[in-house]
Amino acid sequence: GQTAEENMIGLPKEGHEENFILLSATGFIDKDDVPGYIFHGDKDNVVASCVGQYFYDQLQKAGVESYIKHEPEGGHGMGMYSEENLKKMTDFLNDVRTRK
């Protein structure tokens, strides 16, 4: 069977890899991107936590201000909203928003 990505693109991935870069934000990263903070649950059963780490690594490689927080018990959005994480998120957004 086809993967969800192959269904979306309408081609098999093998032999058409260049078409699949469009499905990933990592294909569009450049040094002028806005700062980002990634929160990723290590128990995410939809998007593996290594994907969040890869995205962060690519942002770092491009020189984009970025941070990552792995939540050991977090799933796909579940278990991520601790007071600590929400404070990190709002502090980060307020800092970026108020920069001149």
Write structural notes for this entry.
This protein has 100 residues and is an alpha+beta fold. The chain contains 4 helices and 2 strands. Helices cover 40% and strands 12% of the residues. The longest helix has 16 residues. A two-stranded parallel ribbon has the order 1-2. The radius of gyration is 16 Å and the shape is flat. The mean pLDDT is 93.
Shape: flat
The termini sit apart by: 51 Å
- Biggest sheet features: 2 strands, parallel
Total strands: the figure is 2
Level of helix content? Answer: 40-55%
Could you tell me the radius of gyration in angstroms? 16 Å
Order of helices and strands: HHEHEH
Return the structural class.
alpha+beta
Individual helix count: 4
Order of strands, main sheet, comes to 1-2
Detail the poorly predicted runs. Answer: none
- What is the overall pLDDT average? 93
Oligomer: single chain
Beta-strand content estimate: 5-15%
